[in-house]
Design brief:
The chain is an alpha+beta fold. The chain has ten helices and seven strands. Strand 4 and strand 5 form a beta hairpin. It starts with a helix and ends with a strand.
Length: 333
């Protein structure tokens, strides 16, 4: 038993080493998305992606963050296409079921009238036999009508479940904010619209300062509440032209439509300053946590060749804010 346990521990350590090696060798960020992706590749559970990685290695091409994100986005698009096809199938089935039920109901009414009329003249044996047969057919069609009504209800419930699954896929369960996947869709939409309307567009990366220290000292429940508090503070400045999403871990990303980079810095810095003035307490132990701060980097989206380059610039500005002492917002060069 001890030997089996040791073997399992060795296998787990090896898997952790493999994941770490994959992240470091290819110069990838240590993020929730990348760790999940690396786990799927190293264990082979994400067969399609693992095969693509093997093929790319064989071709001698680099394993970049951009390439990996494109592969994952392709998987998400495939799932979305399947969901769309399923929804169309459900709608078609529901329409067919409604039409069939309406026809059956009309047929039942007409048959019921004929059976009642035949029952008024039971003197001939042929009519009696026909009446019995018609009654049996009527009972059967009534049962089928009920089954079709039940199928309609099930199709409606499935459509509701599919819609909920789509909403859940785009939202972070801890904060209720849109997640990275949803934000990327928002960014692309606003990028196209702002480009068309000659509007300005800025984006920001935010990261909670010393978050690991908070988690280690006060536990993950407290860490979750800190993430929720930051999410709430950032959400209070969001509107139709300002969007906030949880990018993963302790990172958030924001989009400012109609605000120049300097204006976005000022708006985000006001949130940072207000939040830094609060004092937090561990609810479980009543132990003071003290002040909690965050840092941010802001970039002008149209100052870069693509939205991906703009995100990278904001991320670099964020790390500059960290290097300058944290608890500040820095504009990208």
């Amino acid at each position: 038993m001890v030997e089996a346990s040791s073997a399992r521990d060795l296998a787990r350590r090896q898997l952790i080493d493999d994941i770490g090696t994959f992240i470091i060798v290819h110069g990838l960020d240590i993020s929730e998305a990348n760790l999940t992706m690396a786990l799927g590749i190293c264990t082979g559970t994400n067969v399609a992606l693992a095969r693509k990685v093997v093929d790319r290695r064989a071709s001698g091409l680099p394993m970049t963050q951009v390439w990996l994100d494109e592969q994952c986005r392709g998987n998400e698009d495939s799932v979305e296409r399947i969901a769309d096809k399923l929804e169309r199938s459900l709608e078609s089935f529901a329409a067919t079921s409604r039409d069939a039920r309406a026809t059956a109901a009309q047929y039942n009414s007409e048959m019921q009238a004929q059976v009642e009329q035949a029952g008024e003249h039971p003197e001939r044996e042929e009519i009696r036999n026909l009446t019995v047969l018609a009654m049996a057919m009527l009972e059967r069609t009534q049962y089928l009508e009920q089954e079709m009504r039940r199928s309609e209800s099930e199709a409606a419930a499935l459509r509701g479940s599919l819609a909920k699954a789509r909403r859940d896929a785009d939202h972070d369960h801890l904060t209720g904010l849109p997640n990275r996947r949803a934000f990327e869709g928002l960014l692309e939409r606003h990028y196209r619209e702002a480009q068309r309307d000659l509007d300005v567009l800025s984006l920001a990366f935010c990261d909670i300062d010393n978050f690991k220290r908070i988690n280690d000292a006060h536990g993950h429940d407290t860490g979750d509440r800190v993430i929720q508090a930051i999410a709430g503070a950032l959400s209070r400045i969001s509107d139709d032209n300002c969007h906030v999403a949880r990018h993963g871990g302790e990172e958030f990303v924001m989009l400012f439509r109609g605000l120049r980079k300097e204006e976005a810095v000022h708006r985000l810095d006001a949130v940072r300053e207000s939040f830094a003035g609060r004092n937090f307490v561990n609810r479980r132990t009543d132990e003071p946590i003290g002040t909690i701060t965050f840092s941010g980097g802001v970039a002008d989206v149209f100052a870069y060749p693509s939205t991906r380059d703009a995100l990278k610039a904001a991320d670099i500005a964020l790390y500059a804010a960290k290097e300058q002492g944290r608890n500040r917002i820095v504009a990208a060069d």
